[in-house]
Amino acid sequence: MKKIIITSLIALAGILNAKTQIEFQQLEYLAEPHDLIEIQEVNLIDTEELIIGSTIEVIGRYNLGSTDNAQIGLSITSKEKGGKHYPQPYEQKNITKGSGEFRLVRKIDRNGGIHISIYPQAESGRYEQSSSRLYFLELNQGL
Question: Does residue 91 have a pLDDT over 70?
Fold first, then answer.
């Protein structure tokens, strides 16, 4: 298992060298007071156009002021039926109160609204529904 994870990370690092920066815009932004999500760059790392099967890299900054601990993640909201998505470690990052930077990567596996979300951590240690969301790309391939 450990060898598979290391091999996957090496392969991912190899494909991250070839990037195509793409244009994006703020489509919808819902945020708790004192929270900020700011996207600085969106890159395609294995294709030259945004399609299902592409891998995207999102680089940005955040400010977390509404809670002490949270998780920031790259997600897709979709109305399509299909298999459940199990987030990979490189799609999310644990964050603490204050400011910081993020770099998140995800393979696009469905049509929908691509967004960065902040998920507050509950006392139980689990993450709650997102408190802040920034939608920045919409994919409707083949519709």
Answer: yes
Task: For residues 126 and 119, give the distance between their C-alpha atoms in angstroms, rounded to a whole number.
Answer: 9
Give which of 54, 72, 55 is closest to 63, Cα–Cα.
72
Contact 138, 96 (CB under 8 A): no
CB 39 within 8 A of CB 77: no
What is the per-residue pLDDT for 1? Answer: 53
Cβ pair 42, 138 in contact under 8 A:
no
CATH code of 44's domain = 2.70.50
Q: How far apart are the first and last CA of the chain?
A: 38
Residues 70, 127: contact at Cβ < 8 Å?
yes
* Between 4 and 46, residue with greater pLDDT: 46
Q: What is the count of structural domains for the chain?
A: 1
Please report the sign of the dihedral spanned by the C-alpha atoms of residue 56, residue 64, residue 25, residue 101: negative
Quote the CA–CA distance of 123 and 129 in Å, as a whole number. Answer: 14
Q: At 9, is the pLDDT very low, low, confident or very high (cuts 50, 70, 90)?
A: low
Please indicate whether residue 112 or residue 88 has the higher confidence score (pLDDT): 112
The domain of 82 spans: 2-139
